[in-house]
Design brief:
alpha+beta; Heat Shock Protein 90
Length: about 650
């Protein structure tokens, strides 16, 4: 993506001048040390104001690595608002700091150079600055950011119809950098193709430095492919080119690579003879990246010669530099070799620890997100440059769209089917709910009918009528009040699912008082509640006790002579249950059944069955189940002594 800024005339540079002000405050006292010849050259350049890299470099090339002189040129250019000169000098300073591994400062200077080029509306210096930023980030293994800058530089350079020599060289730098990205991705054949393309352009320009770099890169790809002899040949050609232009850093890089091939060919002694002088030269260049690699290869060679202590020392020196300047590849390689060394020495614990650290940094180098982003960028660039691939991608895009439409249709059909199925399931569920609700309603109606059966109503009203006939108005009014209150309570409770135990006890007490009229008040009725229970806080299903009391009266006590009693005992069964016991001293179930068989008019009792069904339905809302247990009571001689009904009411 090309960054676009409108050009500004006679504007104060927008970049930060912090680094420049620091330099001026520190170096202003050394201004008298600037050679007069250089001062005159600078004055002439600023007056002439050339706008190409080639014109500026023709004058300043001998001094472009002198930071003091380049800072002076930056200051002089800033004073005269010569933005092209500022961009050139700031890029030279950035390159200088990059070569001594001060990457943060290098990035800052190249960014200031880029902003100066944008303000000057100088495309050549914009492209150059973008490429230099890409090189710095690539050296620091920031692949994603490096590709961003190199890609932007290439796209911008290719917009120029008649490129200058400087632009052509920048195109080569971009191509070379993209080749390095392929190399990082281990796409070695693609990388070599990029390097050879760049090499061809460098030959046309007669750029020996560019040829050396490309041969070095091709050698690295061949080495990774295991083609060691071909790699060695490529490294040696690169070395000759670097000697021709007296590039000390280039020579050290080539020598280190040649030595690395020797180590892989099991020629550690030959590698050592190259690496020891290369280390001295590398330290003189102050390029920490190369120096770290040389130290690591020295340790590797010494390890092959079984000089383990010396090997460990060199490997640790390389690792320290890599850690200090954050070179993940060098760190990973150092830990890998230290693991191998520890293994050879029998120190398996340290071997494993070094191996884990090597894996950690190897993952950092091959960060999945960066690689995915890089692959996408490369594919995008290639498709933009090849029209036939664009057509293929367009067709593929149409196919994808058709698939998406098909998938969308499938999703719609599937969604409709799911909605239909959900609707059917909901209808079935509602039918199940309605069926249950109908069942509950039927049970409640049956329960109410059992509570308000005509026989009970007739007997109750007949008893009250008898009081009226006998002119016992007080008793008639008393029992009529009780009867009306009982009817009201039954009707109110029938509309509720649960009621407090206290209200249920009040209802059955009214029922027993009215029924006792029929028994001439012979029945002794008592209610006993355990002291640790509060009947007002205990919830039970409504109207469940009356059917058991009715059963005790009709079948147990109606046929008994003498003392008649019914009692209710309420106790806590355990933490999860309340026990309600209904006891009578009637004739017992066995005798009652015999009496029933002799009767002409047999009355069928359905209240208890309905109550059991209701309790089973209530159990669905509780963790535990309701339980009804009927026990026959006997005396010491085995004679029936009554019946006991125990209801276990769950509280949870």
């Amino acid at each position: 993506m090309i960054r676009k800024f409108p050009p500004k005339k006679n504007a104060i540079p927008r970049r930060s001048l912090l680094s420049l002000l620091i330099f001026l405050s520190f170096h202003f006292g050394n201004a008298q040390n600037i050679p007069q010849e250089f001062v005159d050259q600078v004055d002439s350049l600023i007056q002439a104001a050339p706008r190409t890299y080639r014109e500026l470099d023709a004058v300043l090339r001998p001094n472009r690595r002198d930071t003091l002189l380049m800072y002076y040129f930056v200051r002089a250019s800033a004073e005269q608002n010569y933005l092209d000169g500022q961009s050139y000098a700031l890029n030279q300073l950035g390159t200088k700091y990059r070569n001594i591994s001060q990457y943060v400062k290098a990035v800052s200077l190249h960014k200031e150079a880029l902003e100066a080029a944008i303000e000057a509306d100088n495309i050549e210096f914009r492209v150059f600055s973008l490429n230099m930023l890409g090189v710095v980030y690539r050296r620091n293994d920031a692949i994603k950011t490096a590709l961003d800058y190199n890609q932007e530089a290439l796209e911008l350079a290719e917009t120029i119809e008649n490129p200058s020599i400087g632009i052509k060289r920048s195109i080569n730098v971009s191509l070379n950098s993209i080749g390095n990205i392929y190399q990082t991705l281990k796409q070695y054949d693609l990388a070599i193709a990029q390097f050879r393309r760049s090499m061809k352009l460098e030959e046309e320009l007669g750029n020996i430095r560019g040829l050396a770099v490309n041969y070095q890169n091709i050698g690295e790809c061949l080495e990774e492919q295991g083609k060691l002899e071909e790699a060695l040949e490529s490294y040696q050609i690169a070395l000759e080119y670097d000697k021709e232009i007296a590039s000390e850093v280039g020579q050290v890089i080539c020598l280190n690579s040649i030595a690395q091939v020797f180590i892989k060919q099991n020629k550690p002694q030959e590698a050592l003879q190259i690496l020891e002088p290369a280390l001295v030269a590398s330290e003189a260049t102050r390029d920490m990246h190369v120096t770290s690699l040389v130290y690591v290869n020295l340790g590797w060679a010494l390890m092959h010669l079984k000089q383990y202590d010396a090997a460990e020392k060199r490997l640790l020196q390389g690792l320290d530099i890599a850690n200090k300047y954050n070179f993940p590849r060098s760190i990973s390689k150092s830990y890998t070799l230290l693991s191998d060394l520890a293994d050879r020495k029998g120190d398996f614990k340290n071997a494993f620890e070094y191996y884990k650290k090597a894996e950690l940094f190897d993952e950092k180098v091959t960060n999945e997100l960066n690689l995915r982003y890089v692959n996408d960028m490369i594919i995008r660039y290639d498709t933009e440059k090849k029209s036939n691939q664009i057509e293929v991608l367009a067709k593929e895009n149409e196919i994808v769209k058709l698939k998406l439409r098909k998938n969308r249709t499938s999703l719609l059909v599937g969604g409709f089917a799911l909605a239909l199925m959900a609707g059917i399931l909901y209808i079935l569920y509602r039918q199940y709910q309605l069926k249950n609700e109908k069942k509950v309603l039927t049970l409640e109606q049956s329960m109410l009918r059992s509570q308000m059966n005509p026989h009970f109503l007739f007997n109750s009203l007949n008893s009250i009528k008898l009081y009226i006939i006998n002119n016992e108005q007080k008793n008639a009014v008393h029992y009529l009040n009780k009867f009306s209150k009982l009817v009201r309570k039954i009707l109110e409770a029938s509309s509720l699912k649960e009621i407090p135990l206290a209200e249920e006890l009040e209802t059955v007490e009214l029922y027993m008082n009215i029924e006792n009229i029929r028994f001439s008040n012979e029945i002794n009725f008592e209610i006993h509640i355990s002291d640790d229970l509060d009947p007002h806080t205990i919830k039970i299903p409504s109207l469940i006790l009356q059917p058991f009391l009715e059963n005790a009266l009709w079948h147990g006590l109606s046929s008994k002579e003498g003392d008649k009693s019914v009692s209710i005992h309420i106790d806590r069964g355990d933490q999860q249950f309340i026990d309600i016991s209904i006891m009578d001293n009637g004739v017992g179930r066995e005798v009652a059944e015999k009496i029933k068989q002799r009767k002409v008019l047999k009355r069928k009792s359905v209240g208890i069955d309905i109550t059991k069904e209701r309790l089973a339905n209530f159990s669905k809302d509780y963790e535990n189940s309701f339980d009804v247990k009927i026990v026959d009571l006997y005396d010491e001689d085995g004679e029936p002594q009554g019946t006991k009904v125990v209801l276990r009411i769950p509280t949870v």
